[in-house]
Amino acid sequence: MPPSNDSRHARIIDKRDFDISRPLLLRDTEDEDDGDDACNVGHGTNRSGQCGYGRSSNGHPGDDDDEAGSDNIERDRKALNRQVVRILSFIWGVGSALCAGSITAFSLYAPLLQTRLHYSQFRINAVAAAAAVSMYLPVAFFGYLCDRYSPGPISFISACLFGPGYLFAAFTYKSGPPVDAGGTGWPFAVMLMSFVGVGAGTCCMYLAAVTTCAKNFGRGKRKGIMLALPIAAFGLSGMWQSQVGSRLLYERGPDGQKGDVDVFRYFLFLGILLSVVGVGGTFALRIVGEEEMIDEAVEELERSGIIGESDFFRSREEVRAAISSSSMSYGTMDGTTAETGVDTPLEDDSQSLTLSREEWQDHQKEERRKKNWLLNQETRLFLKDRTMWWLAVGFLLITGPGEAYINNVGTIIPTLTPPSFPPHLSPPAGGAATHVTSIALTSTLARLLAGYLSDIFAPSPARPHLQPSSRSISFNDQHVPNPFARRNFSRLTFLLPSALLLSLGFLCLATPLSFSTPQTLHLTTALVGLGYGASFALVPIIISVVWGVENFGTNWGVVAMFPAAGAAAWGAIYSAGYEAARRAGNSDGFQQCAGWRCYGFWALGCTGSVWVAIGLWTVAWRGWRRRGVVV
């Protein structure tokens, strides 16, 4: 009979273990006489002392083959189940991201807050700012919770925030203008707090979706596209939701004609949709193989030399053994202790179930303790890494101008429109809706393309958990050679040109050509969308490659806080320049700013900001190359 394919049942025989006086082939009678001392012809023994293949020691042929076959079937079934769970979690994660960005459709109903609720421009900006601050500031905290308690509970928190948030916003809108605005509606503070909940819910659902995709696929060969898909879906969410609101949930005029969006029904739609998606994510967003990933990362971290031996993880069994050995050396002369009694078989049976439960609970506590130890160590290493700060500050200088342009492109368009231009015609620079759609499409295309190209051309590290953190520490075999001998390019070779495209967009806006030829604003919008989108996709991919995916939620959350400061700073700079230019050229009482000075100096500043970011990212890249980091 040929040997079994399952090598686990065969004992490896070294040449020194073979008795030269023993014949190479045993007769069947000798084999039977030897009993447990020999197995079938040409076969070794397994770990239990039984024959490895064919006939077992109890005389039943094929028992071990059947057992091996059943083990293989069970292993394949478990692997299939894990793959199904991983794929379903990915699908739900992309779907969650596709719904999470509802706040990006704020411009759809912002004018109605002014006309229907009599909100001032300051109050409308306060509502938008409250949503933005609550979306960006807690991102590190919710990322921390994602890593410690899995994305499922965070998705449930998003449902608890989205549902009441949009529900209170809907009924606040329906109640009419507040008392201080001449009406009898609910106070403005209710609307403000409602959008605080909406912003925090956006943060939770986005992080839960991206973290799930990163941890389930961040160690594979397609980590780039698998991470870029939910990020790109988040950018599309506001666009499709605004289309639903304007085309399906609209008001009807007296003659049945199509009117403005019905904000009350639109808010109810968003509240119900996002609550259902959040609750579903509680069960659908699961991390597959997290215990194995944590064990591998702990072993790799201890073997790397980054931390000292005194900081190694010590299990409770090791601590107890150390305490026991020290107490035995001091307790008795011969190192033994007196017996307190002998358990009867009945007592053993009654305690077995309790012990098994206690062992299972101890195992769960031990795994939780190991996970927390690893994540704390990786957080400390992440925050101490100087290259992380170069990357984060560069991300701030990139996303700040990009966010400010997206938020203010609607006010840039009138500055390029001559005062004598007929008001009933479309502006020569294009409508605001056209530019918003262009940014959404180009940004999405850039995110998908950046993730796909990084998977094809970027190198893959040999160890997906961590990479060297100093010059003195370097791992062997950091780079996995490409079997097709394709030339590799660092992910920075995609990130830096993306930032350069963004700077070219602002440089185009800063030239006098933009004022003399307003149609060039479409080129600026396309370049900003491409550069901003690619940067927003590649930075989290780089974080997952350099610092691993075990602590991805916390690491990406820390870096993702920076765009809030950048957007606020460059938005304030734009507003200050706009108002100064308007006051300087408003001798005739015209209320809108017109001319290059309304945006030109701001665009030059944005160009310089992006160039500084390119320099900081180059410094970070040089640091990674010196340490042997494959990025």
TrEMBL record:
Location relative to the cell: Vacuole membrane
GO cellular component assignments: fungal-type vacuole membrane
Membrane spanning stretches: 87-110, 122-146, 153-173, 185-212, 224-243, 263-285, 494-515, 527-549, 556-574, 594-617
A Pfam family recorded for this sequence: MFS_1
Superkingdom classification of source: Eukaryota
Biased composition (Polar residues): 43-59, 329-339
Annotated membrane topology: Multi-pass membrane protein
Region (Disordered): 24-71, 329-363
GO molecular function, one term: transmembrane transporter activity
Sorted UniProt keywords: Membrane, Transmembrane, Transmembrane helix, Transport, Vacuole
Family recorded in the similarity comment: Belongs to the major facilitator superfamily.
Record's protein name: Probable transporter MCH1
Organism: Ajellomyces dermatitidis (strain ATCC 18188 / CBS 674.68) (Blastomyces dermatitidis)
